[in-house]
Design goal:
The protein is an alpha/beta fold and about 475 residues long. The protein is built from 19 helices and 18 strands. The longest helix is centred in the C-terminal third of the chain and has 20 residues. The structure holds flavin-adenine dinucleotide and iron/sulfur cluster.
């Protein structure tokens, strides 16, 4: 890092991107984070101490070269910063918006101060590159004859396809939806990732030679068979689409539904599609209860607020984590403290330590959720145990209930069963950590489908690593990076 001194953290305090005020941002579907001005970003990069053993780099799943690009940003050399960034991360504009940033938890500065704003700097480098025209298609110098079919167009499938097309394979991505992008397209709301950001990246992949075929459901319709028959290798990147359900009295009432179809419907409306009201309901004028925390739960809350819900309550099964913890005890792992979500500011209420006992309704439609308060403690082995308090249940009015309790495993019917793939104990597709091979010859798996429900940055890492494994399988060696 070309810097005279490494004490920028004494001169500058941490700054984060500005958020549009709540009253304004809940009136539209666009992104609401406003990047820091260039001069402030350079100052923020100067806070990096260029540690000898950078925890940020190690804890970033794609091992971004964080101290290197911080030094380049400090010197206003944005172009070289981008070439460093794209060498490890195919889609930094996605991670710069969506990543929970484990790198910042592992930043040494976090021990006595607040960490470097790594995620904001990553996003700024990526956006600089897009706006200045540095993100160009990288076409392979030579084409190979082998064909690879990638099934699923989420971040894992896209990263895998891009790596393979850049070394010359003929790559076709099959997608069962009508649009490409997986959960980036139909899941994550536009106020966190505008779809124009995804589309410009897809145009780059197309220009590099990736062919996308939508409305083809591999394993369910025969259309896919002709691509699969002609493929030298197949990569499964189908995500995890089997949601966790809740089996309590009243579950069959109308007005209770899973999170992703609800979020997808709003993504579609924003894209100009007509979504019949009877299919997926809107939160407008309703008391909404979201069951489950995590990104999916927060996205339901933000969407319901923007749709004009009367009230939104988010239920968490566990007790509220503490506001503070001894960071020395956990570092470089994230400390188990309460992390405020942006949707907490937007008017939603979070209830911690409540179990859903039943749903009650009228005329077949949900009217209220019956809750039992839970007490949690650790047993002698250190495992968490829970018990409901012996007290009358609490009733919460609800005309719309969204289930956001995560995903159990990929859908098995169709593709997975049809190929007779071996599964893990959790129901994910069994494939090696190094070779990404499934139990079927020439078939590989990556992303959430292999790893289980995870993060965009892990999907990118898996896609990159899987591409290398496919390249080694087809050519006997690979010059693609290990991560
Ligand atoms: C609402 C929500 C919000 C999230 N927010 C964040 C966040 O803020 N940050 C973060 O890091 N992570 C977030 N995640 C997690 C993240 O989106 C996933 O970990 C990531 O998208 C997984 O990528 P993937 O490519 O493995 O699968 P997916 O993105 O799920 O893509 C799989 C694709 O495969 C297609 N497909 C499935 N089966 C077939 C078939 N048989 N034939 C053809 N196509 C098929 C699907 O239609 C889909 O397009 C969120 C998840 C959800 C649900
Ligand atoms: S991808 Fe995530 S972990 Fe890696 S540098 Fe970016 S924000 Fe940090």
């Amino acid at each position: 890092m070309l810097r005279d001194d490494l004490y920028g953290f004494r001169r500058f305090t941490r700054r984060e991107p500005h958020k549009q005020p709540v009253a304004q941002r809940i009136r539209h579907w666009h992104e609401y984070l406003r990047p820091l001005p260039e001069i402030q970003l350079e100052q923020q990069a100067d806070r990096c101490m260029d540690c000898a053993t950078p925890g940020c780099h190690r804890y970033c799943p794609v091992h971004n070269l964080i101290p290197e690009w911080n030094g380049l940003v400090f010197n206003a050399d944005w172009r070289r910063a981008y070439s460093q960034l794209e060498s490890t991360n195919n889609f930094p504009e996605f991670t710069g918006r969506l990543c929970p940033a484990p790198c910042e938890d592992a930043c040494t500065l976090a021990l006595g101060d607040r960490p470097v704003t790594i995620k904001a700097i990553e996003l700024a480098i990526a956006e600089h590159a897009w706006h200045r025209g540095w993100v160009m298609p990288r076409r392979a110098p030579q084409r190979r004859h082998q064909a690879v079919v990638v099934i699923g167009s989420g971040p894992a499938g896209l990263a895998c396809a891009q790596q393979l097309v850049r070394v010359g394979y003929r790559v076709t991505v099959l997608e069962k939806s009508d649009r490409v992008g997986g959960l980036l397209r139909y899941g994550i709301p536009d106020f966190r990732l505008e779809k124009s950001v995804l589309d410009r990246r897809l145009n780059q992949l197309r220009a590099e030679g990736v062919v996308f075929v939508t409305d083809v459901h591999a394993g369910a319709d025969t259309q896919a068979d002709r691509w699969l028959a002609a493929a030298d290798a197949v990569v499964l990147a189908c995500g995890v689409e089997q949601p966790r359900d809740i089996e309590v009295a009243g579950r069959g009432l109308s007005g209770i539904g899973f999170a992703v179809p609800y979020l997808t419907a709003q993504n579609r409306r924003n894209a100009g599609d007509r979504v019949p009201g009877g299919q997926v309901e809107s939160a407008q004028g309703r008391d909404v209860v979201v069951i489950g925390g995590g990104d999916t739960g927060h996205d339901c809350v933000g969407t319901a607020i923007r749709q004009g819900a009367t009230s939104v309550t988010q239920l968490q099964y566990h007790e509220q984590p503490p506001w503070h913890a001894d960071i020395l005890h956990y570092w470089p792992e994230p400390a188990p403290v309460l992390r405020r979500a942006d949707t907490d500011e937007e008017g939603a209420r979070r209830l911690w330590g409540w179990d859903t006992a039943a749903f009650q309704g009228h005329n077949g439609r949900v009217r209220q959720v019956v809750l039992r308060r839970l007490r949690w403690w650790r047993d002698a082995q250190g495992n968490w145990q829970k018990q409901a308090f012996d007290e009358p249940p609490r009733l919460l009015p609800a005309q719309l209930v969204l289930l956001a309790m995560g995903y159990a495993h990929p859908v098995h019917a169709g593709l997975v069963d049809g190929l007779g793939l071996a599964l893990t104990g959790r129901g994910t597709v069994r494939a090696g950590d190094q070779d990404f091979r499934t139990s079927a010859k020439g078939v590989f798996a990556c992303g959430d489908m292999r790893r289980g429900q995870s993060l965009v940055v892990w999907a990118i890492r898996e896609g990159r690593q899987c591409a290398r494994a496919v390249d080694r399988y087809l050519s006997g060696y690979s010059e693609l990076p290990y991560v």
